[in-house]
Design brief:
This protein is of the alpha/beta class. It has 11 helices and 14 strands.
Length: 318
């Protein structure tokens, strides 16, 4: 399967402002030597030498992922503001002609996981069909409430694609065509669910919005079936370890806890995710560097666990 990240930020969208863009340009220019700008080739080489945060952005859109199965079936996980960009791309395909079929999973209904849905263009096209799954018992009501006239001018029913809702039990496996899905309840205020997706011997785990702290870690083996031997885990690491202590019961984890869990359950690759809205791109560079330092301090794990950080447009092939 293939996973593409369309939104990686937590809590609320955080677009780059003009001050941040100017700072990136100014810093990059200060690092350039005369020989770095004498040709297209030298410019390309110079740009490749810069830190990710100077030449790119991790992105400001909230949570949304696209999963493609081996049969190219479409699965969308969560509909934060990132789903708007995904919708625009889908409109170039059969979804733009009213012939698209897709599946959507909602892990929970906090704003940053649903507020992109009213701007998801394929929902407006009659003929498109979406099967919508969640362990949230009244998902349809919650989404309709978001688009009541007092909150938004267009009702969910006005979006003419066919939408069918299915409640799935948590802590239980089910099959969707050729893939196996396991929904697991996560520690998060108001409730949230993680997703484990297995296809053709590959395992992808997604757990945005989860608070694994010292207290929860005492019972971590209850999550063994969820995490064990995953090829890739996308994990909520919104806070530093110190912030996770100061913001106890806010519902988010740290990279160090995520690494400990990934190591315990033989995860191959860990993706840090659901970034704090106040974190700049430069700060996120530091978050990744600190996480890798923590990883390498544990010599038993360093050789078998890879740690990366999520950015918009990131593609993961399994």
């Amino acid at each position: 399967m293939q996973i593409r990240l369309w939104g990686v930020r937590g809590s609320l969208p955080t677009p780059l402002d003009s001050i941040s863009i100017e700072r990136k340009v100014r810093t990059a220019l200060s690092l350039a030597k005369p020989g770095d700008i004498i040709s297209e080739e030298s410019i390309d080489s110079f740009l490749k030498s810069l830190p990710f945060s100077l030449i790119n952005t991790y992105g400001g859109n909230t949570t949304s992922l696209e999963v493609r199965t081996r049969a190219n079936d479409l699965i969308i996980i969560d509909c934060g503001s990132g789903v708007k960009g995904l919708g625009k791309e889908l409109m170039k395909t059969e979804f733009g002609r009213g012939k698209g079929i897709g599946t959507i999973f909602f892990t929970h209904t906090h704003w940053d996981h649903i507020h992109g849905l009213p701007f998801f263009l394929p929902f407006f096209i009659e003929g498109n069909r979406f099967n919508i799954f969640s362990s949230v018992p009244d998902l349809k009501h919650r989404l309709e409430h978001q688009q009541q006239y007092s909150h938004f001018p267009i009702a969910l029913d006005y979006m003419r694609a066919k939408k069918e809702f299915f409640q799935i039990a948590f802590d239980e496996e089910f099959y969707l065509n050729d893939i196996k899905v396991y929904s697991k309840s996560m520690p998060h205020p108001g409730g949230a669910y993680g997703m484990r997706i297995e296809e053709n011997g590959k395992v992808f785990v997604y757990t945005s919005d989860c608070e694994f702290n010292i207290n929860v870690f005492d019972e971590i083996d209850t999550y063994r079936e969820f995490f064990i031997n995953a090829d890739v885990v996308i994990f909520d690491t919104q806070y530093t370890f110190q912030e996770s202590i100061e913001k106890f019961d806010y519902g988010h984890s740290s990279a160090s806890i995520a690494i400990d869990i990934a190591a315990r359950f033989n995860v191959k690759r860990l993706i840090l995710f659901h970034h704090e809205p106040d974190y700049s791109d430069e700060k996120l560079d530091t978050v990744l560097a600190n996480a890798r330092t923590y990883l390498y301090m544990n010599s038993k794990v360093a050789g078998r666990l890879e740690v990366d950080i999520a950015y918009e447009g990131m593609v993961i092939d399994l």
